Amino acid sequence: xxxxxxxxxxxxxxxxxxxxxxxxxxxxxxxxxxxxxxxxxxxxxxxxxxxxxxxxxxxxxxxxxxxxxxxxxxxxxxxxxxxxxxxxxxxxxxxxxxxxxxxxxxxxxxxxxxxxxxxxxxxxxxxxxxxxxxxxxxxxxxxxxxxxxxxxxxxxxxxxxxxxxxxxxxxxxxxxxxxxxxxxxxxxxxxxxxxxxxxxxxxxxxxxxxxxxxxxxxxxxxxxxxxxxxxxxxxxxxxxxxxxxxxxxxxxxxxxxxxxxxxxxxxxxxxxxxxxxxxxxxxxxxxxxxxxxxxxxxxxxxxxxxxxxxxxxxxxxxxxxxxxxxxxxxxxxxxxxxxxxxxx
Length: 344
Prior knowledge:
The chain is built from twelve helices and eleven strands. By secondary structure, the chain is α/β, with parallel strands linked by helices. It has two domains: 3-165 and 198-223, Rossmann fold; 173-196 and 227-284 and 300-343, UDP-galactose 4-epimerase, domain 1. The strands form three sheets. The chain has a seven-stranded parallel β-sheet with strand order 3-2-1-4-5-6-10, sandwiched between helices. It has a two-stranded parallel sheet with strand order 7-9. Helix 1 crosses helix 6, helix 3 packs parallel to helix 4 (134-149) and helix 7 (231-242) crosses helix 11 (302-320). The longest helix has 19 residues, at 83-101. It is globular.
């Protein structure tokens, strides 16, 4: 039975990856700085609590594995500034060095759509020039360049997903889910007429496994849903499926961005620059290459995955309460948004 190492295995997407690998008959070794905290995986996988920045720990973790999915990263809401480069770039180097020393057959690097920034033309393909947005996007683009430099020694595929959604996803989305649950008005910037593609965690996990199992040496792939409409229509579909009385309210983009940027600078808002710039743009990927080379077929559309994630949230709301942090498995600090919520 082949062995796979998943970095960031205790995170939201790391857990989806773990379940996907187990379902396909792989043995799983998971590494994270956080505790696994997932009872369903006890005694089913090998878990290592360690930092990807620790070369000795990484070398030991990569020993004897057939493939590595490097999923560990700091995300935008962490507002980590220079630490983005420490974790996302230096951490990636440590992972790749460990893979070289252990002669790992295949490495999959999970990048981000942020490396494309706000694209001038859509759909975005693997040949679209990179124009990374924000510190997070720039750090991930630099990590991609590092991967390309290691391709003479390793078979490394770079995967760029649209915003990942699925059961267990919280972070900023928890605000949306909470307000829909309480029938409150929810505000978006602009009309919401932009097409904003998502990708489901199970679909992306399937893509990761296909990238390991299919012959695709040193290839890059974009992943996104096939079924999506506009941001407003997808949100209204969620509200309808939830049986909520929530109304989606548009705010004027210019003034709202100014206010949000000030609140962001003061660190009294959960929203960062990505949320008040990129979420108003048309962004969707052409996934033809993944479909052709890997035989990948996305099963979930935007509204369906939003609804599934919301229903999971309702079922686990009692567990989530009080779990605040900067990962996608935890709620965010609302800050001044508490006042907006009260007024809604």
